[in-house]
Design a protein that fits this description.
The protein is an alpha+beta fold and about 325 residues long. The chain folds into 2 domains: about 110 residues, Immunoglobulin-like; about 120 residues, Four Helix Bundle (Hemerythrin (Met), subunit A), CATH 1.20.120. About 40% of the residues lie in helices and about 20% in strands. The protein contains 7 helices and 13 strands. The strands form 4 sheets. Strands 1, 3, 5, 6 and 7 form a 5-stranded antiparallel β-sheet that branches. A 3-stranded mixed β-sheet has the order 2-11-8, with no helix packed on it.
Length: about 325
């Protein structure tokens, strides 16, 4: 019986030695320096070298490092060294109090694969001396001194203001010059030619349309598109309405709101409505109606054009809306 017991003890001892041999782990920690000035950053590292068959819990960002504040935290990628895994956690820590402090022990938990219980190893503590920025002064933190007010130098202030105004004037002049140059205008604005009356532009455009070959070549839609654009551009120049951006209905309603003569509105509505039917509804009016539409546009321009009548003994002219009853 004693012999059997001895053999069992030897077998258990061999098994125990084999388990610890498979579960080797080494914990190390170090700092880059042990003496700092207040507010300086210390680089603190925890390094664990372990067998591959061990599971490991490394310290986290919430680790208690005593009086030191964690400024940064980095986990390095595990690496293989001599068939063992090396894991490392780096901290950047600091404190804003002077004196002798201790980075406490940090717990490292590990267990073998298949084991349900965790084992704990502790790192070595590190003594850190934190010195004041000015050790000659009594105390660590002193009251902030009030700001000193220098004597006012009014001559320098006036020179600075004048220089600023001159600089601003130069900048504005350069910007103005560049803007005029981009627009192709002279530096000094010149009085340009007055814009041509809207009716003159419209009548010339209608004459060119009359002499074109759009109708003779069967381009009826293009003819009415051009005719509609000429009339709408005339309305914009004559009545200052965005006719090119309005539908026919919108334009007619706005002209009625402006209390323009009904006969002129009806004539314009008939012309634009016919043009819309040709452009959008593919209406093909007879040839005589095309000629009539062109004449209707000419009559509308002549009857609504803005004319200037001289006023006796006065150097200015007055715009008079000319109403005509006969063509």
């Amino acid at each position: 019986m004693a012999k059997i017991t001895r053999h069992l003890l030897i077998a258990f001892s061999l098994l125990t030695l084999d388990i610890f041999a498979q579960g080797d782990i080494v914990v190390d920690s170090h700092v880059d320096r042990n003496k700092i000035l207040i507010g300086d950053v210390i680089h603190y590292s925890v390094i664990v070298t372990r067998d591959k068959n061990l599971e490991l819990l490394m310290p986290s960002t919430a680790e208690n490092l005593g009086m030191f504040e964690i400024r940064d935290y980095a986990v390095r990628e595990p690496r293989i060294v001599d068939d063992q895994i090396v894991e490392q956690v780096d901290y950047e820590i600091s404190t804003f109090d002077t004196g002798d402090y201790l980075i406490p022990e940090v717990a490292i938990q590990y267990r073998a694969q298949g084991d349900s219980s965790w084992q704990t190893l502790m790192t070595e503590p590190h003594d850190i001396v934190v010195e004041s920025l000015n050790p000659d002064e009594a105390g660590d933190i002193r009251d902030i001194k009030p700001p000193m007010t220098p004597p006012r130098d009014y001559a320098r202030l006036i020179k600075s203001v004048i220089s600023g105004v001159l600089l601003l004037a130069v900048i504005l002049f350069v910007l103005y010059y560049l803007k005029r140059r981009r627009e192709g205008k002279s530096l000094i604005p010149m009085r340009g030619k007055p814009p041509r009356p809207a009716h003159e532009i419209a009548l010339e455009a209608l004459q060119r349309l009359r002499e074109s070959d759009l109708l003779s070549s069967g381009k009826v839609k293009e003819f009415y598109t051009e005719l509609s654009d000429i009339v709408r551009q005339y309305v914009e120049g004559r009545f200052y309405m965005p006719a090119m951006e309005m539908t026919t209905t919108q334009l007619v309603n706005v002209m009625r709101e402006q209390n323009l003569p009904d006969k002129d509105i009806e004539k314009l509505n008939a012309l634009l409505a016919r043009s819309d039917l040709v452009k959008f509804a593919k209406l093909e009016p007879p040839a005589d109606e095309n000629t009539a539409s062109l004449q209707l546009a000419t009559d509308y321009v002549n009857e609504t054009k803005l004319v200037f009548d001289p006023v006796d003994d006065v150097s200015i002219t007055e715009a008079v809306y000319e109403e005509k009853t006969d063509v």
